[in-house]
Design goal:
Layout (H helix, E strand, L loop, with lengths): L1 E6 L2 E6 H4 L2 E2 L1 H10 L6 H9 L10 E2 L2 H15 L7 E5 L2 E6 L4 E4 L1 H18 L3 E5 L2 E4 L15 E9 L5 H14 L3 E2 L4 E3 H5 L10 E6 L2 E6 L3 H15 L3 E3 L31 E3 L6 E8 L4 E8 L5 E13 L5 E5 L7 E5 L4 E12 L2 E12 L5 E5 L2
Parallel strand pairs: 1-8, 20-24
Antiparallel strand pairs: 1-2, 3-4, 5-6, 7-9, 10-18, 11-17, 12-16, 13-14, 15-16, 17-18, 19-22, 21-24, 22-23
Amino acid sequence: MQFELRYDGKTATLSGTDLDLGYDATLSATQAFLIGRSQQWLSDIYFKVFQNPVNLAPYFRWNRSVIDSALADIASQVDVPATDALFQFQNGKVTSFRPSATGRSLNKDEANVRLSQAFYTAGRTGQERMTILMPIETVKPAVATDQANTFGVKELIGSGYSEFAGSIAGRIHNIALAAGRINGILIKPGETFSFNDAVGDISAATGYQSAYIIKDGHTVLGDGGGVCQVSTTLFRAALAAGFPIIERHAHDYRVHYYEEGGFKPGLDATVYGPTYDLKFKNDTATSILIQAKTDVANLSLTFDLYGTGDGRRAQILNQKLWGITAPPPDLYQDDPTLARGTVKQVDFSAWGAKASFDYLVTRGSVVLQNTTFVSNYRPWQAVYLRGTL
């Protein structure tokens, strides 16, 4: 006999041999022999006179430890404890946040009942193979996200993601720093979020390091290189949440970081205060919490926006790319700070193109946003510094 314990698309198999499944003839015979011999004369007379014959069910047995071990193994794979929400708000910013999460658990008592029934059925019918579904139950958290705060922060309503593999150390530092300064911000209902206002001054004085930036049509080293990775990722989160985009600017040229992870051209947002900013409006009835996750090991950035969903649906449609033009020839520039014979690439070629996408946000049959974003990327030449020292 074989018993298949099904859970999460998986199967644990137990055989009748493993279980030592069978009838205990000795115990059954002992039970039969003791009828009418209990040393209680009234009870013995009753069974001999009024309960003759006595129908005894044969004793069916199995190895309990095998079942306990199998259920413990299944529980180790399926049990997930519920997570209580955590929300701490200090000085106008959320300092600690953890959304609640439901857990799940194998109901071992119910599993034992189902297994016992299957064993008895198999013993009675001689069925060679049986399938038993394992009972997995949902475990609710003691404190849900919406119970932990009074701001309406209840659920995830939008996420943005980007990758930055190949970034120099200063750029990675700046990404983590700028993302950390936005992390925990609450956007009130009706409020317009400004990236530049949220991040503040971007300079060496505020902790930023030197990395490559686009300035005056050139790629140069400057304080805060990499901050546009943060604005781009937050732009994607705002789009996913269905917010009105009040201000957004495309980069001068296609930056390969913003097309990593399968993203098409046009989903970037450059910032350079005070001229270029990223702004979007919270047009929901509750506050929006920004959560940043910078993964410096895998070089990726995620923004999660939490609030209360109002049934809106955001879509990015009709992504187009046209007018592709080749980059100019490579440019070599003498650099007296580099040793003679040293060649250092400081700018990378990029094909010019125009890109667009339609941004449609609906709630039922009502259109909330219907906008087309257009980006005009210049062809960009590679630049090399040639040492003359």
